[in-house]
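Q: Given only this backbone (533 positions), what sequence would you predict?
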């Protein structure tokens, strides 16, 4: 660290979807800003998650920026659901098209951010320099810090050790290799069919079976593309009115009131074509346990039909509420278990005892392997923020403040942390919405706020403790009405032992949108400006 101080209006941490748009928007509004990015290129999540089969499960025409009409008209997606390389190409295109790279510092890891109360300045320390700014904006993503479980003997493994969330840039060749993969969440469910086609043997270590719906991915339907592009702006606006911010998910009918025939027909139709939209077949699937069970039973029956060996089918059949853990969308996942080189190991019955130099053992067996893949998820939603040593007023540490539960007002501001914003932070729809429009909504809100502050001669904004408490109560009250809280998942921190078990995403894009707009209309109610120390 050379200690050279540089003053900006804002420091933006991260050059993924959030950081790139944040930079563009602030620059256009006349603010000086710089993006600090740990990687050597743009992309964020889409840079790090380049495991085989990585693909978005929100339709490409919706998982894209809307801030520039020419961009959304000119860019053409190749498939209904884009694969990771195409999304990364898109982000590179955006970075070039809006000349963003000149304001991004790559290979720059943020270590700490300290608020200097005397000078009302954030000091951001990186592996290279110290930066000074009035605002600090965390565009750090919700799924950026890989969860590496403390498995016995892991440090002794001498083969190739990989994590789906920090996959190497160079392609990994599985040919003639014996491979083990631990975890059966979205990342694993996407990568298993691809790896199984190359590897000599693939051992899948499953703790909890997961629901997955076929993606039925296909080349982009040009007619649909033209239709959407002919009314792109209205289409995007309509999507903000849907619960998850995604088109086509909503139905008003209740599963419990429908006839068996109607349910079978609706579930079948959505199984055949909708991916994540399967859960939109009826409006009560995420609210009523009985309705949820009907949908879950349908998927379990499908698994029985897809997997030849019925003992394996039973093991692959989840027992929790469908959608409680994030629903997965796959390309041939269940059928992969019909291949003779694919083996399912039930960790619930027989956990991993030890990892040795080139093998994994449980009580029953020892599996010789060359490659070990951890598909064990992330320290989600808060991990990338608490990984940075952030200190606010009176030296209060954010990590400590969040130890008994992450609290934020609107998922945008945190009490004791003046002029610090989070893009899609805890308490906002974030991971329970289409991330890209939610990111754009936050970036626009933050920029408008900074412009308003400049126009109204305000230097410092900070959410109040009471606003934050009330907001997080609301987040939890809404979640209480759903099945989300009845399932252990990364939505509620259950995947990380040390983490407080709070449900963090706000469920319901339309009500959220109404409320953040109302806050602005009421002169940023719940925030205070220029509070004295
Ligand atoms: O991670 P996960 P992921 N021993 O947390 C298991 C997004 N995403 O990377 O359920 C053994 O879902 C764990 O088991 P359990 C998407 O939002 C999107 O797959 O805790 N197993 C689970 O099976 C997704 O939800 C796309 O019992 C252990 C798995 O590891 C999110 O990223 C694609 C273990 C982790 O599953 C995370 O998905 C991919 C241990 N010690 C990802 N620790 C898109 O399509 C954990 N597990 C856009």
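A: Predicted residues:
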């Amino acid at each position: 660290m050379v200690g050279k101080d540089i003053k900006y209006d804002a420091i933006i941490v991260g050059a993924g979807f959030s950081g790139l748009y944040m930079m563009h928007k602030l620059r256009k509004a006349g603010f000086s800003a710089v993006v600090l990015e740990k990687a050597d290129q743009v992309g964020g999540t889409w840079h790090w998650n380049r495991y085989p089969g990585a693909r978005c499960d929100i339709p490409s025409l919706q998982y894209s920026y809307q801030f520039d009409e020419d961009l959304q008209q000119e860019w053409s997606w190749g498939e209904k659901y884009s694969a990771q390389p195409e999304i990364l190409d898109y982000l590179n295109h955006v970075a070039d098209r809006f000349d963003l790279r000149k304001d991004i510092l790559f290979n720059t890891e943020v270590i700490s951010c300290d608020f200097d109360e005397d000078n009302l300045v954030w000091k951001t320390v990186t592996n290279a320099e110290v930066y000074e700014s009035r605002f600090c904006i965390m565009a750090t993503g919700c799924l950026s810090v890989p969860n590496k479980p403390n498995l016995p003997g892991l440090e002794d493994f001498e083969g190739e050790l990989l994590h789906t969330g920090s996959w190497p840039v160079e392609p990994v060749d599985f040919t003639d290799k014996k491979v083990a993969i631990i975890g059966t969440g979205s990342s694993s469910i996407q990568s298993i069919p691809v790896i199984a086609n190359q590897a000599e043997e693939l051992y899948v270590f499953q703790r909890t079976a997961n629901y997955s719906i076929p993606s039925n991915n296909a080349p982009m339907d040009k007619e649909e593309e033209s239709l959407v592009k002919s009314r792109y702006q209205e289409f995007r606006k309509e999507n903000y009115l849907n619960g998850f911010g995604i088109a086509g998910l909503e139905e008003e009918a209740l599963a419990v009131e429908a006839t068996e025939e109607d349910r079978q027909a609706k579930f079948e139709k959505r199984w055949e074509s909708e991916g994540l939209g399967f859960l939109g077949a009826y409006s009560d699937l995420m609210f009523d346990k009985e309705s949820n069970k009907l949908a879950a039973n349908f998927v379990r029956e499908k698994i029985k039909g897809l997997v030849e060996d019925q003992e394996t089918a039973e093991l692959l059949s989840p027992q929790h509420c469908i959608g409680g853990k994030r629903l997965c969308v796959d390309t041939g996942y269940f059928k992969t278990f019909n291949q003779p080189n694919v083996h399912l190991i039930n960790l619930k019955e027989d956990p991993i005892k030890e990892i040795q130099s080139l093998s994994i053992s449980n009580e029953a067996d020892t599996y010789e392997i060359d490659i070990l893949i951890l598909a064990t998820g992330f320290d989600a939603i808060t991990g990338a923020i608490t990984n940075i040593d952030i200190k606010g007023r009176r030296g209060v540490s954010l990590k400590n403040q969040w130890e008994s539960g992450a609290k934020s007002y609107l998922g945008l501001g945190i009490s004791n942390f003046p002029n610090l914003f989070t893009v899609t932070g805890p308490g906002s729809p974030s991971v329970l919405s289409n991330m890209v429009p939610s990111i754009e909504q936050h970036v626009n809100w933050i920029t408008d706020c900074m412009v308003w502050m400049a126009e109204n001669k305000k230097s410092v904004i900070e959410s109040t403790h009471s606003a934050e408490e009330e907001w997080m109560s609301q987040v939890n009250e809404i979640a209480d009405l759903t099945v989300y809280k009845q399932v252990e998942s990364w939505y509620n921190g259950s995947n990380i032992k040390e983490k407080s078990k709070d449900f963090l995403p706000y469920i319901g894009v339309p009500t959220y949108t109404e409320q953040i707009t109302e806050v602005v209309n009421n002169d940023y109610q719940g925030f205070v400006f220029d509070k004295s120390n």
